[in-house]
Amino acid sequence: GENVEQHPSTLSVQEGDSAVIKCTYSDSASNYFPWYKQELGKRPQLIIDIRSNVGEKKDQRIAVTLNKTAKHFSLHITETQPEDSAVYFCAATRRGSQGNLIFGKGTKLSVKP
Amino acid sequence: DSGVTQTPKHLITATGQRVTLRCSPRSGDLSVYWYQQSLDQGLQFLIQYYNGEERAKGNILERFSAQQFPDLHSELNLSSLELGDSALYFCASSVSGTSPYNEQFFGPGTRLTVL
């Protein structure tokens, strides 16, 4: 089955710096890669996603890139702000899997003011 | 607020006991997913139901079972509880159970503590 590895497990940056979180997946049939943000004590919320037919997607300060050949995808956050502090999860799923998500173990991002 | 509700918010019980967690999906969503979140394992997919039928199984123990009712709410039953079952249990819902592209909306979770 699918396995998703996520690095780093913790990341600390200064406000205004960029943050990059990387994930690799094992199932070459995976075709959808969402990223979820979970603030302390709250539910995971989708922040951005990318399909396998797209190499990059941006939404304001957030971008995701996908390299299908290498089977890895990354989340990029620019101009980080203290409210970006949270745990970020990458996930993967594929057609035929009914949409159930296989998550990475998460990255705790701390943005220091 | 995602529109997904879960009850109870907290549950404290003893080893060997049985509990039921409840989830109501967003209005119009037919698919319900259950996830377990523990500190060392992250978010693990347990099981999915779509319009009353089981669609996919993940790392769900035999002691755990679930069902989705005609009104589309779902219940996750955990029996013969062990200390290691202590975790946050999330349910999520989406419009479709067949497309991987539909966003899953998570509920607030039920925190289970087994003593």
Question: Which features does this protein show?
Answer:
heterodimer; A: 113 residues; B: 115 residues; seven-stranded mixed β-sheet; 11 strands; globular
Rg value of chain A: 13 Å
The profile of the biggest β sheet of chain B is: 7 strands, mixed
Main interface: chain pair and counts? A-B, 26 and 29 residues
Order of helices and strands of chain A: EEEEEEEEEEE
Number of strands of chain A: 11
Which residues of chain A form runs of ≥5 with pLDDT under 50?
Answer: none
Class from secondary-structure proportions of chain B: mainly beta
Shape of chain B: globular
Overall pLDDT confidence of chain B: 93
The average pLDDT value of chain A, as a whole number, equals: 93
Written overview of the protein:
The complex is a heterodimer of chains A (113) and B (115). Chain A has no helices and 11 strands. In chain A, 0% of the residues lie in helices and 58% in strands. The N and C termini of chain A lie far apart (41 Å). In chain A, the strands form 2 sheets. In chain A, strands 2, 4, 5, 9, 10 and 11 form a 6-stranded mixed sheet that branches. The radius of gyration of chain A is 13 Å and the shape is globular. Chain A is mainly β and 113 residues long. In chain A, a hairpin with a 6-residue loop joins β4 and β5. Chain B has 115 residues and is mainly beta. In chain B, 0% of the residues lie in helices and 52% in strands. Chain B is built from no helices and 11 strands. In chain B, β7 and β8 form a beta hairpin. Chain B is globular. Chain B starts with a strand and ends with a strand. In chain B, 38% of the residues are buried. The mean pLDDT of chain B is 93. The interface between A and B is medium-sized, with 26 and 29 residues.
Offer a quick outline of the entry:
The complex is a heterodimer of chains A (113) and B (115). Chain A is 0% helix and 58% strand.
